Amino acid sequence: ACAVAMTLYGRRRARRAPAASAVAHAQAGSTQQWLARVDDVVRQYDAGAVTADEAYAHLAALTREFAAAHSGRALSTSTLRELKRRPTGGTAANWDALRLTIAALYPPEFADAATNAEARDASVHTAAGWVGDFMERWR
Q1: pLDDT by residue (tens digit) across 25-53?
Q2: Which residues contact 52 (CB under 8 A, 6 or more apart)?
Q3: Which residues of 76-85 are buried (b: 16+ CB within 10 A; e: fewer)?
Q4: Per DSSP, which regions of the chain are E strands?
Q5: What is the pLDDT of residues 50-65, one digit of tens each?
Q6: Which residue in 44, 18, 41, 45 sits closest to 31, CA to CA?
Q7: What is the rounded distance in angstroms from the CA atom of residue 73 to the CA atom of residue 90?
Q8: Closest Cα partner for 123 from 41, 65, 64, 16?
Q9: Helix, strand or coil for residue 130?
Q10: Is residue 2 a contact partner of residue 118, using CB atoms and an 8 Å limit?
Q11: 91 by DSSP, 3-state: which?
């Protein structure tokens, strides 16, 4: 799943902070506001305020919250299995991307890095890139 997500989303390029005027004009719930929340998780992790496991959990929750806010569907407690059963409707690409992003986050969030290569090779920064790409591509 990680390999598929990385192939689809590629490596995340560094995001520059938006100009103050851009932030001032951003609408409530804009993608930039969601990306700022992703960046905040990374900052907390880098500062040692949260562990890697906590950061992955926060990123997964943000992914679900974003999709819920933009789709109008309750997704905060949806498991990957439940997401796979959801109808795709007219926005199949969005739902496929949601499933791929959540699936990519599962190994680093839940698996033992000592025995799982996907969990071992992941990083909070890479995972934040997956989530950011998902948010930027939502249509």
Answers
A1: 333 368 999 999 999 999 999 999 999 98
A2: 45, 108, 124
A3: eebeeeebee
A4: none
A5: 999 899 999 999 998 9
A6: 18
A7: 14
A8: 41
A9: helix
A10: yes
A11: helix
